[in-house]
Amino acid sequence: MRSPPPPQSQSHSNYGPPYNGQVGGGGGGTFAPAFGGFINDPTAQMGYQVGKTALNAGQEYMEQNINRYVSISALKHYFNVSTPYVLRKLLLVLFPWRHKPWSREQRPSHSTPSDASNYYFLPPRDDINSPDMYIPVMAFVTYILLSTLLAGLRGAFHPEVMGLTATTAFVVVLLEILGLKFGTYVLSISNDSQLLDLVAYSGYKFVGVIVTLVISEILNRGQGTGGWAGWTVFGYTFMANAFFLLRSLKYVLLPDSSSSTTAGSGMHTIARAQRNRRTQFLFIYSYVVQFIFMWIISRQDGSPAQIKTAAGAAKGAVGG
Fold first, then answer.
1. Phi/psi at 102 (nearest 5 deg)?
2. Does the reported pTM lie above 0.90?
3. String of b and e for 97-134 (b: at least 16 CB within 10 Å)?
């Protein structure tokens, strides 16, 4: 008996074409039809459309609810910044003494360029005098991280330090926003953009606080912001921030009424009656309020024992 010869032609016909088909199809000859069939399946298409519709409806619902309190389009204006603007703005906040002019630039609307009342302010990237929220937000986060880092360098880091610092900063910002909201109500400022301008300007204090913490830590050799060095740096950053706010907010709280000559004498009477109150509010906010808040958030004690005591008291208060 002899064994039959190997089926060469049958082996070639069984293994040759599928292998060649996989190579020609890019390695997806077997699974591509099944996957394509899943995509083209009517049930899958209907599920995709339902999911897309639900996602769009949820996004629209969130935008509608958020727009009740804050305008998303207005917030986008405050974050329209560039790197040159950020650098120039930081220098302006720290060295505002010789800057001119302080007025914001305006452009006529493209829809009605002949209408003198339909003007809009340029975004921050195109106008250094325009307030933004990018620098205040980044300075706020940097302040919390820097305070925690300095506590660690002094050998007094505890998890409660970051929480205590963040809570203090949040409370200061919240109190200031509530105070600004009350001030806009008393001063009859009904424009939401003016309120957002005040909120943006309120965050620039963290730039001066960061500079105070860093320079005081270097000069005092890890002993916090106390001593003559710390108070000197704090005094400069406070005066710079107060002068910056005083000159910048003048065009927000005390706008020029010469452009409203056609509105009648009644509007001029109201503007004159409120001008003194707005001037007093501007001075108190720029100097008194900013001094209190900047002193609270810039106070750093270099004594590890006192930091541990404060952290333990905060932990006990939370636990109680």
1. -105, -10
2. no
3. eebeebebeeeeeeeeeeeeeeeebbbbbebbbbbbbb
